[in-house]
Design goal:
By secondary structure, this protein is an alpha+beta fold. 56% of the residues lie in helices and 17% in strands. It is built from six helices and three strands, in the order H-H-H-H-H-E-E-H-E. The protein has a three-stranded mixed β-sheet, with helices on one face. Helix 1 (8-29) packs antiparallel against helix 2 (37-66), helix 2 (37-66) packs antiparallel against helix 3 and helix 2 runs antiparallel to helix 4.
């Protein structure tokens, strides 16, 4: 019934300092945000704080110019809603890693086509593409060789193509011959 007076000039000063610190922090964290979920989480937190500082600056300026105290509450609610997008972004990536989903930005079909298009490859099956961490994709698969193909050379060629085309450096490939009996294909 008797809300305290809002010190809009003090709000602007504190928000301006916060904005400067957040911008500096974002700059420092931006280099590692795509390689570590921990750094990305910190970056998203600082990003949200930076938006909060901008909101507080704008709100304080409006309160100072108009005297409308309700703007303080509206800005607080708006800042609260900024939690959802950053939480969803981080949660989606964590779930994808935990469920061994195909890494973001990679196409399982494109990887399969690259392997299948390598000289000496008759077919590929049991292909799994996932990431252990945000920046470490992995691939396993069974490669059926054409008759007369050198398995070691084909494996190296596949790995070279996957490294060049997908930055995929951790692969485990089982080389198989077409002429093996069905009993030899038991896994």
């Amino acid at each position: 019934s008797a809300p305290a007076e809002i010190q809009s000039l003090g709000m602007m000063a504190v928000a301006a300092v916060g904005l400067a610190i957040n911008l500096l922090s974002m700059r420092l964290l931006s280099g590692g945000k795509d390689e570590s979920l921990n750094v990305k989480g910190a970056y998203l937190e600082v990003w949200a704080d930076m938006l909060g500082s901008v909101g507080v600056l704008a709100g304080a300026a409006l309160i100072w110019l108009t005297g409308w105290r309700w703007i303080d509450s509206a800005v607080a609610v708006g800042i609260g809603f900024m939690v959802f997008p950053r939480t969803w972004t981080l949660l989606r990536e964590c779930i994808n890693i935990l469920l061994e989903g195909v890494p973001s930005g990679m196409s399982l079909q494109a990887v399969r086509e690259t392997v299948a298009g390598t000289a000496g490859v008759a077919a590929i099956h049991d292909v799994h593409l996932w990431a252990v961490t945000q920046s470490k994709p992995m691939l396993t698969g069974h490669v059926v060789l054409l008759p007369g193909a050198d398995g070691e050379q084909v494996r190296r060629d596949i790995e070279d193509r996957l490294q060049a085309g997908f930055d995929l450096h951790h692969t485990t490939l089982q080389m198989e011959r077409e002429d093996r009996s069905p009993a030899e294909h038991i896994h």
